[in-house]
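Translate sequence into structure tokens.
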Amino acid sequence: MLSFLKRRDAAKSHTQALYERIVAAARQPVFYTVGGVPDTPEGRFELISLHVILAISRLNADGEAGRAAGQALFDHFFKDMDYAMREMGIGDTSIGKKIRAMAEVFYGRFKSYAAASDAADRDTLATAIGRNILDDEHHPQAPRLADYFQRSAERLSALSLLERHAVEQLEFADF
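Result follows.
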């Protein structure tokens, strides 16, 4: 029983470390000052989502263990969003509905970004990112964010995010 608890705690710690790296990457001021991402709760959600999508896409490539780690990351992300909404003073009765809506938004982003990225379709990716993150599918920074997404995906493809040392060294592309 104790070995199960140790493995569970290690997995939780690994997920926390990965999520912290993702949030640090998404909170880089350059995205907001140069990249045109609105510095709002919605803009921050969108950028964290983009980075979580990159990480889950990479984890999914590592088979069953990767998919389980990706699910743990997804769960951790939405627990954090729940906590953040409570901290902002959103009432308990509406949080469940908001989290469900956010999860649906996330899933839609995941499908569109991953499909465009897998097809190496920069224009479709830029349009989706512009529409979702920048509120304008023709925003001049949308292609730059699409390139960032692609370069980050390529960088992550060389890592196994299941390994603690890889998470500790995780860096997304430069914006």
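Note: Residues 6 and 18 are 18 Å apart (CA to CA).
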